[in-house]
Amino acid sequence: MAPIDKFVAERDAVADTLEYIDSKVKAHQVTPVDGTSIPILLEEVASCRVKLHEIHLKIRTLCPNHMGTHKQDLFLLLNSADSIHNALHGIQASLPITNSSTNSSTQQIRLPKLDLKAFDGSILEWTSFRDLFTASIHSNTTISKGQKLTYLKSYLKGEPAKLIQSMVLSDANYDIAWQQLHDRYQNDREILFAILRRFYNQPAANSSSSIRSLVDTSKECQRSLQILNLNTDKTTDAMMLFTILNKLDHTSRELWEQSLKGNSIPTLAELFEFMEQRARALAAGPKPRNSSKPEPSPTRAHVHHTHTESNCKVCGVNPHPI
Hints:
Layout: H1 3-26, H2 38-62, H3 68-94, H4 102-107, H5 123-138, H6 145-154, H7 159-164, H8 171-185, H9 188-200, H10 208-227, H11 234-245, H12 250-259, H13 268-284
Helix pairs in contact: 1-2, 1-3, 2-3, 2-5, 5-9, 6-8, 9-10, 10-13
């Protein structure tokens, strides 16, 4: 299964969950929804919204230039989630008030866990953190701002955590905390320079693992430039291609030249495909022999010379002058 198909299947599973909850809401007149189950259903709707945004971000990262249909599907599902959320609150408001009020029941909803890496202040990580947090929490109308601030604090560490650690958990402080993070880290110029430094400072590659690392990091930098809404045209691709080629070993560059046909300028996608094949070939080839093993020293033959005098050849007695 291709990666994009996997994410679409995950999104369809979330859609099935929303459809199930919607069926319970629509059947309320015939089969009333129990008041104690409404907070659970509201929690499930909130969790579905979070999952939808997480899946959408993965799809956008995988194919940023083909998002038309995926955007429409996301908007339809989010609208469905909002309608279900509002209908559940309507049902909740129509029920007799018990000892546990509507507000307290809503506040006791357990916040769903996010698949989100804590932000530590790295300028390269800010954009992805901002987009995922905005999609999953900041734009989520089903949770209060106080709950959003709870989320925000739990996904910060290091310098960003210290920046807002003195703020009390309240609805009023959420917008202030979010704006402070924006003011500190939303610097497109610094983000751009950090991306370029990461790309140009990659080490030379001459092994299977290092070539794959060069491919992965270069692709990440390319996607990061696109997220900044910078036009990565053919000139940009050509400059990136030249830089990447200069980081390959001599043999790999020779094989690359041999693979080209004609005099047209190759694309980055073609170079990445070649590098993947080259990495597989190196991984499958024989391991280099260990040249650091000391050679055995040659065995020296020891010859003992004994000086003896032969007997007389005529008389056979001890040697004597003739």
